[in-house]
Design a protein that fits this description.
Blueprint (H helix, E strand, L loop, with lengths): L6 E4 L3 H12 L4 E4 L16 E2 L6 H14 L2 H5 L10 E2 L3 E4 L8 H9 L5 E3 L1 H7 L30 E4 L3 E3 L2 H14 L3 E3 L4 E7 L2 E7 L4 E3 L2 E4 L5 H8 L9 E12 L6 H4 L3 E3 L4 E6 L3 E6 L9 E2 L11 H13 L10 E10 L5 E3 L6 E5 L9 H16 L10 E4 L4 E4 L20
Parallel strand pairs: 1-2, 1-13, 2-9, 5-15, 13-21
Antiparallel strand pairs: 3-8, 4-8, 5-7, 6-7, 10-11, 11-12, 14-17, 14-18, 14-19, 15-16, 16-17, 20-21, 22-23
The structure holds flavin-adenine dinucleotide (FAD).
């Protein structure tokens, strides 16, 4: 390992590794530093890795759609074969149920129309042709199982769903991150594991490097915070948090993993689905299982975490609440006594839209606040961060003259001020994992 690089990337999750790949392709000498022992072992490992294109904003939808093309052509995009295997894009399509809270998806369909993304509207007869196990009763608003209103049926059933083919999920998010590491290494990128960044150095208002826990100092004129749920810890180390209008914090989330109804091959016919009527999303999982997470309805208490190194990794009552809500939609599921699943942290911003930006410290950049919904966007995050960093290092003031980034598969341009740390809270956001 050298002691001087063009850029240091703190974190080797899906975001940090994709930034490494895109910078390395541009000829930058990068090093990712991670306190864990391999790429993608942080919150990325817990990701449901759902690849969908629908978001609450036009820019969010365009970014997700652009990223989709890279997942769909993963091996060619990476230009490298990982000896450990390549992650697979299981392209099932995505189903989003129409309901009261999403206004029967009027806005979603208008965003899809504007971007030319094809979709179908399904009524419940069509839905049940594919998913005979789904019940169409509406229960909105979502409730806790111990609430007397839990399971109270609304007069009108759900009207149907929007289904679009441009989506699915990635077989193994940790492996996909390792794929990126291998691809970045092919361009000369380096990785340092089992090393915690404990200090960030500055000289004359310019970042100059970092020190890791064993005292090793590494120098670079560019340092990128891609530390996931630890992003606020790193921002405080760099002393830049006060200069951010939009901030990040860590939020604990549980995803349950329960058997699909016996006799129904959900693993083959299932697809990632969003059901805001019960405040849950789900997707198929190997072994004919269902992964199910919360869409952050008001009834679910928010478990904000002060220290991202210390949180409860066991399933709690929250898991049972998600299982009971899922059982309203899929009445035939059996709920195990001990619900299994994963527990990890989201890195959430004030408006659940990420921050991809410079900072008030020259040379210190932010790829943070991924708010439980940016795994899918990693390819585009790598691309926009590489462009933003290169232009800012060449003297452009992105705060005053925001970079416009061309989305080549859609022939449209996105204003990167959308992701600024200095933006006002974006009121178009869902303020949830839906983004
Ligand atoms: C339960 C769950 C389900 C999700 N489902 C989806 C989904 O279906 N679709 C989707 O698009 N997104 C999903 N997400 C969100 C997505 O997984 C995240 O946005 C993404 O993985 C974040 O990647 P990252 O690289 O920023 O963070 P991480 O993967 O957490 O990587 C950050 C890395 O930084 C390292 N680090 C932190 N501090 C230091 C330090 N001081 N020194 C050195 N290293 C440090 C950590 O060890 C870690 O490896 C989900 C997230 C969770 C938790």
């Amino acid at each position: 390992m050298k002691k001087t690089y063009d850029a240091i990337i703190i974190g080797a999750g899906i975001i940090g590794c994709n930034i490494a790949f895109e910078l390395a392709k541009r000829g930058w000498k990068t090093i990712n530093i991670d306190k864990l022992s391999d790429a993608g072992q942080g919150s990325t490992a817990a990701s449901c890795a759902v690849i969908r294109v629908h978001y609450s904003t036009l820019d969010g939808t365009a970014m997700a759609y652009e990223s989709y093309f890279y997942w769909d052509d993963w091996a060619n995009y990476l230009e490298a074969e990982d000896p450990g295997g390549m992650a697979k894009f299981i392209k099932t399509g995505i189903m989003v149920l129409k309901c009261q809270v999403n206004e029967k998806l009027k806005k979603t369909m208008s965003l899809l129309d504007e971007l030319g993304i094809s979709y179908e509207e399904w009524d419940f007869t069509r839905i049940r042709n594919r998913f005979s196990i789904l019940d169409e009763t509406s229960y909105y608003p979502p409730q806790r199982p111990d609430d007397s209103a839990f399971g109270r049926k609304n007069k009108d059933a759900l009207p149907g769903a929007v289904y679009y083919p441009a989506g699915g999920f990635i077989s193994d998010p940790q492996l996909s991150t390792h794929n990126l590491q291998v691809a970045a290494e092919a361009y000369g990128a380096e990785f340092l594991f089992n090393s915690q960044v404990t200090a960030i150095h500055k000289e004359r208002h310019q970042v100059s490097g970092i020190t890791v826990a064993d005292g090793t100092r590494i120098n670079a004129p560019v340092v990128i915070n891609a530390a996931g749920p630890h992003s606020f810890v790193i921002n405080r180390l760099a002393g830049i948090e006060d200069g951010m209008k939009i901030k990040t914090r860590a939020l604990r989330h549980e995803v349950i993993h329960i058997p699909a109804p016996s006799g129904f091959d959900f693993e083959t016919v299932g697809c990632p689905s969003s059901d805001s009527d019960i405040g849950c999303y789900w997707r198929p999982e190997v072994g004919n299982h269902i992964l199910c997470g919360s869409e952050d309805p008001d009834c679910d208490p928010k478990d904000w975490i002060d220290d991202p190194d210390v949180f409860n990794r066991d399933m709690t009552e929250q898991a049972r609440a998600q299982a009971y809500r899922l059982a309203l939609r899929i009445p035939e599921i059996g709920i195990p006594r001990n619900i299994k699943g994963v527990v990890d942290l989201y890195d959430v911003t004030d408006d659940w839209i990420p921050i991809y930006d410079k900072s008030d410290l020259s040379g210190f950049y932010l790829a943070v606040g991924t708010s439980g919904n940016q795994y899918k966007n990693a390819p585009m995050v790598g691309k926009i961060m590489a462009e933003l960093i290169e232009q800012c290092q060449n003297g452009r003031d992105h705060d005053i003259d925001p970079i416009q980034f061309h989305l080549e598969h859609q022939n449209r341009t996105i204003n990167l001020a959308f992701y600024s740390r200095l933006r006002e809270i974006n009121t178009e956001s869902s303020f949830s994992v839906l983004g």
